[in-house]
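name: query_chain
kind: protein
chains: 1
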Amino acid sequence: MSEPKDKEAEITKFPGIASLSLSVTPISEKDNFEVIEAVVRVYDDNNEQIMQHKARSLFSIAKTLKMFIQNRTNLPINDRRLAVWCAQYFEKLGIKLGEEEAYQIIKKASQALEKVSRVTVEHVEASDLVSIEIDVLANQIALKSDHLLSEDELYDMLEKHQALVSNTVLRKITYKNSGGVEHKDKLNLEITPSETILEHNLVASFKNETEHKLTNVLVSDIIPYLYKVKEVTCKEGGKYKKELVEGGLKLTWKISSLPPGGEVKAFYTLEKRIPRTIMIRKGEEIRIVQDYNSLMREEDEDGGIRIFFTSEVLNLLPVTLDELFIRDLIPSEMRLAEESVTEDMTFIDFGLKHGLNIQQALTNVESGTKFLQKYIINPSPLIWRMDLSIPLKDDSNEACVISKILEKMPKENAYICTIVSSTPVPCTITNEVESGLKTTEFLPSELAPSDDKEMSWDIDKKFSVSFVLKGNLTRQINSPKVIINGKEHTAKISEIGNVRKSKITTLPFTHVAMFRKFLREM
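structure:
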């Protein structure tokens, strides 16, 4: 379903400055203006737009406007007058905001600007450069350098401090047993891609496997900031509590009691954000800000859906920055549309596991300078992959290695699956066909197993087989297993979101051959 373009709110004169007018257009729910997202546009006396800024709170709006207008006109802005205007303006938009409430928020923004005006760059805050998303807690790193960094040093530093990329969810569980003793547990859960491109899923459950009732059950999941929570349901847990913590967005359910056999199951639908790494330098002082931008959607000229994100940096510091570097990491399940590519961009391939970095570099960035870039992206077909390496001896480098690759075909409900392995010792590989799929063809044909649902091969050397699967994938891909000396080992998901078009994608020969054969026969 397409998301309509936002209709601009009423344009009105800015209080106290006759030559400027502006509009503030909400682009999210209007229930809490302290965190609401909005587009702020400022116009001159010729009705020409001179600024457009995406803000994520009234605090951010006030801070940006005051900095921008003071730099442009050298005129002071009265907080009380601005608060009265905000309350009246937002009431027209259906947002109830009292004058006193508005005044306290705007006063806080003024105090933040006054603080910035008295200090140097070593006291910079993330909000002095970017408007942080509601469900994201920006991370800031302070560094120093006594010399101008070389290109290699700069590259190494930016790579080391790249905004974190993780598909691991930390789950914490606490409860009291029938004897009143409190138990605590931690485990890691893996977010996996769904069949829908750009969408990711997580099913997280906790079951009372004891014979007694558990009380005071607390279940919390920390979703990495790389992922935006689009939807979450947990019927047994009821309403959850949200909290921004260092590792991500923490969602917590409190269940007063859980009977024997009772289960708390949470279903998450997630979408990847764009990790962003910003580096500023003023003399010896270096600051790195790590944050994330969400994908947005709008209707294009043909009535279709355009997917995009914006990368925006506004220097609200009272100094001219020597250098500003902005890196936006495009996940490998997305690709940048050609119309978004400019000559100023530098592309840095981080490999299959992460994606492609777009780097912009600016020098002598004056106070009040704004960088704004809109990137249109297109979904890319996913290649799911699972890997497993089993060391055979402690004192040698020998290992049994196995990979499973599953690729969605461009048309029809079909997939190409490949299992490839290398082992110096005899072993058995097993693979269960995913629910909703059935096999139709193997390459090479002589490696077709006797059971095409519960597949099994006994091998003692290099091995590669590809096959066609038809149907609808109704769950995540199954893990292949390896049995060595009676012990079973299970592969784990890896390099989520691989893209066939990636320059460094390496696929087994049988997989490529089957892919091409299928395309010819379509």
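note: The first strand starts at residue 12 and ends at 13.
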